[in-house]
Amino acid sequence: MRRPRKTKIGATHGPSSSSPAMIRSFFDAGVDMFRLKLSHGNHEDHRKRFEAIRNVERDVSRPIGIMMDLRGRKTAHCERRSQFDGRNRARRHVQDGG
Hints:
The protein is an alpha/beta fold.
């Protein structure tokens, strides 16, 4: 059974909120979708979290969304002296995530 509201509520799911009881309490508080941040942890950790969410989904007989946040590029800001006028200017440097 779906909730009657049109707005969906999402929560970032991590190590401190991995227990089935915590997932269930988030669901009971209104969370419709969990975000798994894949840049933290390993495959086994993510698999356990995924399965824990699916177990709660089965218990409540209602679909719960899972969004997997893949690690992308990193952006760093640094100061660099301009060769044209000698003033410091902020520059963006993009590095490959790895």
